């Protein structure tokens, strides 16, 4: 419910993160179409530079497709240890401005800057300063979205990419959402989008025109979320110590895959991401789950728990591979794979400080 509190949320998102790190560290890659991933027939693109994106190359695309679209594409193997290092650097910059930081990925975080530690009057200026420091200290560019809630801040950060920032003020929020295609709504996946289209819901205005009951009847509990965000309402806190019950990462393929080698490569990339996440968050996990979404949208999961937490990167990779191999040869096309971790042991100190955003707005402007 609306409590009248106006918050200032900044969503920071590094631009083409893995690919930009590789271009930074190897001058020969500057200005070139670069894909992070493996060039092998079985490979999947983990990240693409802006030069590569101009050819239509994007993450989660099979390498073979990427090579067809962009014959001069340069493949670089991922270096998660380096990405993690940069991630730590940017988090340390964030912490000079607010303690309310919620990481979403190695290269993405929400910051609650309603009250910032440097007394910078606006969130706009705060975002500018943070981005300038990121550039100076890491040599990489970031984009920022600024708004009064997480949903809109995340949408805003995509508006001026790369190396830009955009604010959605409380006055702009509803109008911004009205023209937004439902496919772009966070929490609306391809299946839901399709269902919405069939119901004549194509953009935020269409969504807003539906009653709460109508949305509830069609989408259940998610209908409540759609009802709120159609009005620009999102009361979720920026939660720096969110206790994760599980963490996962997934990849939707550009086309359904049946080639075991291509699927395995993708699972390995996801396992590497999850290992990086474990290290960043200071957590340890005992259970790994591999999720498979089939071409017909049916879903399967395969899970294994160890007696003690995973203690190295390769161990996690091996178990993830064992699990995906349980569904080989695939009975039908695979459209998505995911790797998730659970059964956590968290370093206790990371959970000890509970800080809350202030309960009233301090400054009206952004
Ligand atoms: Mg990014």
Which structural class is indicated by helix and strand composition? alpha+beta
The major beta sheet can be summarized as:
5 strands, mixed
Indicate how many domains the architecture comprises: 3
* CATH class term of the largest domain: Alpha Beta
Tell me what portion of residues adopts beta-strand conformation: 15-25%
Number of helices in the DSSP assignment: 13
Large-scale geometry: globular
Order of helices and strands: EHEEHHEHEEHEHEHHHHHEHEEHE
What are the distinct ligands in this entry? magnesium ion
The radius of gyration computed from the alpha-carbon positions, rounded to a whole number of angstroms, is: 21 Å
Which spans of ≥5 residues are poorly predicted at pLDDT below 50? 347-365
Total number of strands: 12
Structure notes:
This protein has 366 residues and is α+β, with helices and mostly antiparallel strands. It folds into 3 domains: 1-167, Reverse transcriptase/Diguanylate cyclase domain (Alpha-Beta Plaits), CATH 3.30.70.270; 174-229, DNA polymerase, domain 1 (Orthogonal Bundle); 246-344, DNA polymerase, Y-family, little finger domain (Dna Ligase, domain 1), CATH 3.30.1490.100. It is 36% helix and 22% strand. The protein contains 13 helices and 12 strands. The protein has helices at 17-25, 50-53, 63-69, 80-94, 123-138, 150-157, 173-178, 190-198, 204-208, 212-219, 221-229, 260-281, 313-325; strands at residues 9-14, 34-37, 45-48, 74-76, 101-105, 108-112, 142-147, 165-168, 246-257, 283-294, 299-305, 334-346. It has a 5-stranded mixed sheet with strand order 5-6-1-7-8. It is globular, with a radius of gyration of 21 Å. The model is unreliable at 347-365 (pLDDT under 50). The protein binds magnesium ion. Magnesium ion is lined by residues 13-14, 17, 107-108.
